[in-house]
Amino acid sequence: MTYQKVVRTVPFIVHRTANKYERNKACLKPPTKVNCTTVEYKWSFIDEKNGCYQNEVCSDHINNFEDKFKCARACPPLWRPFPPSKKVTCSDWLHEKPCYRYWFHYYPDIYGFFRPYMFYTGCREWKNKLYVYDPWTKTCQEVRSCFSCARE
Questions:
Q1: 95 lies in which domain range?
Q2: Residue at 4 is within a domain
Q3: Among residues 70, 75, 67, which one has the least CA distance to residue 29?
Q4: What is the DSSP string of 57-101?
Q5: Is 94 part of a structural domain of the chain?
Q6: CA atoms of 42 and 101, how far apart (whole Å)
């Protein structure tokens, strides 16, 4: 009886940061459902979200995978630094962010006329901040930290 030496190789995956030029070509093409005969609900790599998501895509499109695992294996997410956090000011809650609580109070100005002031809070980590908006001067300012304002 003769014995044969069997060498078994085990593949392993080396995790490294890839740039867009080293990526799979399928990852670089955004998924589309325009100008195709059949549209399927499959997995595709979406660059803006830096990951694989289910969406409607042409059946013959290159960025079209059967399941999330195959998509993630072909198109691993790229490491991206978080964008710098923006300092939130009192006017952000008035113009950009719809999440706040508000109420009105009337106070006299220096001439004794009662004018409305809008008091409002932020939300999430800013829900304990109290701001006041003066519609007459169109200015706002942080009044104080308000722990009783967080009545949600």
A1: 90-149
A2: no
A3: 75
A4: EETT-SS-BSSHHHHHHHSPPPP-PPPPPPPP-HHHHHHT-----
A5: yes
A6: 41
Residue 101 lies in a domain: yes
Q: For the chain, 152 residues long, give each residue's pLDDT as a single digit of tens.
A: 555 544 444 443 333 445 545 678 888 889 988 888 899 999 999 988 889 999 999 988 999 999 999 999 999 988 777 666 667 677 776 666 666 788 889 999 889 999 999 888 877 777 788 888 888 888 888 887 655 555 54
Q: Please give the structure tokens belonging to residue 65.
A: 């995978």
Domain assignment of residue 10, yes or no: no
- Are 25 and 19 a contacting pair, CB within 8 Å? no
Q: Which amino acid is at 124?
A: R
At residue 92, φ and ψ (nearest 5 deg) are -60, -40
Same domain, 60 and 97: no
Tell me, what amino acid is at 80?
R
Q: In sequence order, what are the beta bridge partners of 53?
A: 44
- For 102, half-sphere exposure in the C-beta direction (CA atoms, 13 angstrom radius) is 16
